[in-house]
Amino acid sequence: MILKVEHTTLFQYDAPIYETATEVRLHPASVMGGQQCVNFNLELQPEASFFDYTDFYGNKVHHFNILQSHRDVEIVATSVVETAPPANKESLCENEIYLMDFSGQSRYVHFDPALTRFADEFRECNNALEQATAVCRHINTIFEYEPGVTDVHSTSAVVIALGRGVCQDFAHVMIAVCRNLGIPARYVSGYLYGGGSTPDGQDEASHAWCEVFCGPQYGWRGFDPTHKTLFVDERYIKIGSGRDYADVPPVRGTWKGVASEQLSVSVRVSSLE
Amino acid sequence: MLSRVAESLFWMSRYFERAENTARFLDVNFNLLLDLNRIATLESSNCWIAPILVSSEKACFEGQYNEYSAQTVTDYLVFSRNNPNSIRSCISLARENARSVIESISSEMWEQINNLYHFLQSVTPQQVQGDPYSFYKEIKNASHLFQGITDNTFSRTEGWDFIQIGKYLERADNAARLIDVKYHMLNPENERALDPVHGSVEIIQWMAVLKSCSALEAFRKVYLSKIDPDNILRFLVLERTFPRSIAFSICSAQEALWAISGSTRNRYANNVDRLIGKMESELSYTSVEDMHYKGLHEYLKELENGLMRIGEQIHLLYFAYHTPKIEPSDLSDSLPFTGLGGGRAGWSQSQQQQ
Amino acid sequence: MGLEAVAALLENEDIPGMSEFFGCYDADVDHFFDEVIAEEGTPRPHYDKLLERFAEFSADDIRARREIVNIFFRNQGITFTVYGVEEGIERIFPFDLIPRVIPSTEWSMIERGLEQRITALNLFLHDIYHDQKILKDKVVPPELVLGSEHFRREFVGVDPPRGVYIHVTGSDLIRGRDGRYMVLEDNLRTPSGASYMLQNRQAMKRAFPVLFDKYNVRPIENYPQELLRTLQEVAPSSGHDPNVMVLTPGIYNSAYFEHSFLARQMGVELTEGRDLVVNNNKVYTRTTNGLQRVDVIYRRIDDAFLDPLVFRQDSTLGVAGIINAYRKGNVTLANAIGTGVADDKVIYSFVPAIIKYYLGEDPLLDNVPTWLASKPDDLKYILEHLGSLVVKSANESGGYGMLVGPASTLREQEEFAERIVANPRNYIAQPTISLSRHPSFSHDTDLYGCHIDLRPYVLYGEKMTILPGGLTRVALKKGSLVVNSSQGGGSKDTWVVDE
């Protein structure tokens, strides 16, 4: 599918602030044999020069700063992506050292006793792909999607205790379970076409899911525990991946001043075919 | 030099001068009361309103105390932690600023400010009530000592210039307020001045104004014994040879500003220099008649506003977080002054859940 | 024991001073390696001149010299904030009057060992931040590096100027019972103490000019110039005279004195995070003359607090965006980001293997034997021998988070054992070494043997420069093994002398 994404992030302040410094991870990935980012455009208001680099996990990061006083910061990222259906067989020998980062705890992914008990249910099975599928289905069934009960810093332990959350939380839980079972799993930030709550595809946030390494035979497979379709297909646009949300926040920054901040985000994903 | 260091030196100097001026003024007020009580019983509360008016704290003071008396006013202007301009608060802030740039000042300067701070922490209101003379003398002496030490140990670099600017701007500002309040209270058009008893009261009050600026002896040298309000005005506002006059202070501040920017007479390098150059020139050509023509209160108010604008521009030009090239010219869009007290917080942007 | 031997040194036997000092000194050579008195009870040759001179001193002479030293330190304002003490006050850094003397032959051996070690560690850092060959070859377990909180993924792939990561280092050396020098630990992040080293030398020159003259002491006064040169050599190539500065966390930091001292000695600006700003990926200071470009920053702030955009968001000490500017090569930080992974106490045990891997050589300076709690066999040994080992937390410095077996109670051992089992990767154990001892004054009257170590300073820019001597730290409390300044230790001047 050829999909277009317009992702607008607006920070508003009730008094002039200064020295905004921000990193954004909004550039969709281009994956060999898979999704290709055809076009990407970043607009900043107030105008500022931006720079980019590629981080440790291969994600493209843009950054900018605004020195003088301002009252709003608006970031509009527009991309055109050609997605591909997931390949059936991918023989991939992943670097062992690289996989280590996705096998243990991280900032938002914790192995607490509740998690270990939760994961015990799936320990019997030997096949990583089957295990991951079962975990994904289970989380999708018993966890409830409910915004407002968790926040952007909630860990997997908090989510398991609450039994509810948003897609970021669902992804963290699934990653925690997989890793606890010995299956490397990574967090993916991106967009979902048609996943919005409004008919024209407009939503208030980007989307999160996970990728699980199912061995050299199957490679990395995308799973979305938030949606009952479970498997990631061509409606999904991947921006990047990391150990958890902390590695791929879409927008992350600092500023200075005496003011209160209001954040609003809107995401629109449309099809160009 | 680093903006932060320049700003701290400026404020260290400014707060110190403010504390000294307040001490000087309160001291004179105490003496005034004693003199007046010998001649005629005057409502003493009248005397005590003046110091509050000079520091523009009327509303604040009345919110916390219910009468004007020696105790309440002294408490408010000397000790109160709720008053950022009390002597104790000023010296605390001066010390904080000095501490944050301790590497730029001499160890003797630090020792001196530290000693004064500790003295103020240990002195009690009762001690001040019992012997106000010694207390205020201590403050004045400490200030003289600090200035002398600074003069002898601080290299004549840009830092020195900022110290001078802070001191002289504060001095000019304080003098303008003082004259404004006192002149208003002692309005010579008042019919009571014709009454001989009240006449001598007025003379004493005017002498007190001069003493508040440590100007009595110097004044006498120029004007002999003619304590005439207009002469006093002329002396305190326009006299270039007297170090506590407004004209002298503005002149010295200008000199220091030029030393930093390289401006010269007729050629200003930036907005600050333009504003202070304008003020200084006007002062050289102003007469007392001009002041009365405008209305003394209006004239002094204009002076105070001018000084405030100069202070703001200094902040924008030398201390603010940005160079003037990127700071908007519209002041309403620029950042409020956030001194050492706070406000320069660094914050993280909110993040959105996915 | 040393009485007759020392007395025999003198021609004039009835100088009263002598018996006051070295005459009563008990070197206890049966239990310890003493720096001054050899096993046979005779003084080591390089201390002859010192003993000779001290023989001429009376108690009053020593007191007078102490006064000179104290006044000097007081005027310099050399202070150190001690944490954990109620007042948290600033104290003059305790200084012992008797210098430690190292003959140049001994020193060259130390020098070569340090050069080898620092070269290897730098290559190690370069490797793990690039191809990670040493991890792929399993010489160092990858999980130790990846699991270290100091391994900064943000820095992988970045090329610092000249490939140097560790510009200023200090590897702490001790001597065991047999007098052999060993490396106790490496300090590759922000080692401090160089300012004390310089001030100690100044103090000694004033207090003991005659003694100083008798010896041919290698100078160290040029340290600030060498440091500045090193920093300039690693500037991003920009053609103009690089603008160097020292970045400090501020006046409340315990080592603030050193930051400001070094900045003044080098003639560079001392800045705090709030003086700096990153604009368009370049770093500037805010001055009264506008924004001034910065090229090299000698940063005395820990990685985690350096950049709220990339590391700890709650840090007010850092500069947002500085890491990205560094990544781009628009500014150089000394030391580089992420060097802490190599001075981790666990990685320490692999340093001999690291030296072998990159240089193909055996280490010239040995490690202290180390057991890793993360290895099951080692863990068993550690738990069984807690009473005789020194167990350290891998990440904390300054002597905290440590169990000194022989000095601990059974209760303390049990509690510590729990901690080790809960987090084995974090703990290492070493045998209690009888550190060498050096005669030091107690109240400037009696001499007693105090444990010492040595922190030399190594500068690495275009080439490596190692300052002769360094800071000798002394455990001034009788019987104490802890030399760290943050827990009440002191220092001596260190003289490398040419014979």
Automatic annotation (TrEMBL), chain A:
SUPFAM superfamilies: Cysteine proteinases (SSF54001). Coiled coil: none annotated. InterPro entries: Bac_transglu_N, Papain-like_cys_pep_sf, Transglutaminase-like. Residues 159-227 form the Transglutaminase-like domain. SMART domains: TGc. This is Transglutaminase domain protein. It comes from Prosthecochloris aestuarii (strain DSM 271 / SK 413).
Automatic annotation (TrEMBL), chain B:
Pfam families: Alpha-E. Residues 1-319 form the DUF403 domain. It comes from the Bacteria. This is DUF403 domain-containing protein. It comes from Prosthecochloris aestuarii (strain DSM 271 / SK 413). The lineage of its organism: Bacteria, Pseudomonadati, Chlorobiota, Chlorobiia, Chlorobiales.
